[in-house]
C-alpha cells in the first residue's frame, strides 16, 4: 500500500485474490455469486468493514428500542418473505426512525437521535467504500469517497421521503410494464456505486454502469432479486438480523461488482452479443 505525496490518495497493492477471475465462464447469477464467495473465502478481510458496520447496525437497533424517541419496525419483517435491496451495499436494520419522530424534540434528544442515524449512515458508507476499493484493487481516493457519500445520502433522503408507502396496481399489463421498467433501470444502475469508487464522476459512473450492464441485465436483475431476498430473510432473525444482513450479504453484494467492472485497469467484461456469453478477460 502506498500513499501519494500530497496525501490525497491511497493505492492498494494488488491482493492475491485478484488472480481469481471469471475467465472462460458465462456470466450467470450462479457464476457471479460463486466468484464473490470464492473471493471472500480466500480473502476474509474483504468482509471485515461490513462486520464492524453490522455491529453498529445492531447497536443502533438496540438503542432505538431503549431510547425515548419513537421508532418503527419495518412492515416487511412480518412478511413471509421480502426483497430488501439498496443500490449501495448495506444491511437491513430491524428498526427505523421516521423524520417525523425528530420533529419538536428537545435539543438533547434530537442530537442523540439524529447523531445515531448519522453514525450508522457513515459507518455503512465507509464499509462499502473500503470493501469495494479493496475488491476492485483501486486507489482509495477521497474525491471518490465524497461522490459515493453524495449518492448514498441522496438515496437515503429519497427513502426517508418515500417512507414505506406502496402503490397498488390492478391492471396486469401495467403491472408487467412497471416490473419491466424497474428491472431494466435497477439492472442498468447496479454497477453505479462501483464505478464511483473507481474514481469516475457521477455522469461517467452512470454511463459506465449502463455500458457494463449491456447483455447482462437479466442476470443482474436476478442477482438483485437473490441479494434482496437474502437481505430480507436474514433481517428477520430476532435480535441479530441487522448484523447478519450487513455482515453476511453486504460483502457478497460489494464483491460481486468485481465480476463486471475493471480493477486496476487489468480486467473487463466483454459482451460479444446478446446470444454470446459475456466473459472477463485479463
UniProtKB/TrEMBL annotation:
The keyword Transmembrane applies. Residues 8-21 have a biased composition (Basic and acidic residues). Keywords: Membrane, Transmembrane, Transmembrane helix. Residues 1-21 are annotated as: Disordered. The chain crosses the membrane at residues 44-63, 109-132, 144-162, 174-197, 218-234, 240-261. This is Uncharacterized protein. It comes from Halogeometricum pallidum JCM 14848.
Amino acid at each position: 500500500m502506498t500513499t501519494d505525496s500530497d496525501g490525497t490518495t491511497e493505492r492498494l497493492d494488488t491482493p492475491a485474490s485478484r488472480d481469481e477471475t471469471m475467465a472462460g465462464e458465462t456470466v450467470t447469477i450462479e457464476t457471479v455469486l460463486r466468484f464473490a464467495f470464492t473471493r471472500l473465502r480466500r480473502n476474509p478481510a474483504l468482509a471485515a468493514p461490513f462486520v464492524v458496520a453490522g455491529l453498529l447496525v445492531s447497536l443502533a437497533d438496540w438503542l432505538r428500542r431503549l431510547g425515548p424517541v419513537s421508532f418503527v419496525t419495518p412492515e416487511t419483517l412480518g412478511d413471509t418473505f421480502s426483497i430488501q435491496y439498496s443500490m449501495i451495499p448495506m444491511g437491513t436494520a430491524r428498526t427505523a426512525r421516521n423524520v417525523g419522530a425528530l420533529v419538536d424534540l428537545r435539543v438533547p434528544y434530537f442530537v442523540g437521535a439524529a447523531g445515531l442515524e448519522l453514525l450508522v449512515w457513515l459507518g455503512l458508507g465507509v464499509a462499502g467504500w473500503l470493501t469495494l476499493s479493496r475488491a476492485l484493487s483501486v486507489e482509495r481516493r477521497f474525491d471518490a469517497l465524497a461522490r459515493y457519500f453524495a449518492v448514498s445520502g441522496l438515496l437515503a433522503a429519497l427513502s426517508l421521503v418515500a417512507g414505506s408507502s406502496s402503490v397498488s396496481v390492478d391492471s396486469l399489463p401495467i403491472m408487467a410494464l412497471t416490473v419491466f421498467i424497474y428491472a431494466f433501470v435497477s439492472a442498468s444502475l447496479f454497477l453505479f456505486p462501483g464505478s464511483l469508487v473507481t474514481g469516475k464522476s457521477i455522469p461517467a459512473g452512470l454511463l459506465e454502469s449502463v455500458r457494463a450492464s449491456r447483455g447482462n441485465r437479466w442476470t443482474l436483475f436476478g442477482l438483485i432479486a437473490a441479494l434482496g431476498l437474502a437481505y430480507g430473510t436474514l433481517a428477520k432473525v430476532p435480535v441479530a438480523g441487522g448484523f447478519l444482513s450487513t455482515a453476511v450479504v453486504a460483502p457478497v453484494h460489494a464483491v460481486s461488482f468485481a465480476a463486471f467492472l475493471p480493477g486496476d485497469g487489468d480486467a473487463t467484461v466483454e459482451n460479444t452479443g446478446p446470444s454470446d456469453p459475456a466473459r472477463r478477460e485479463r
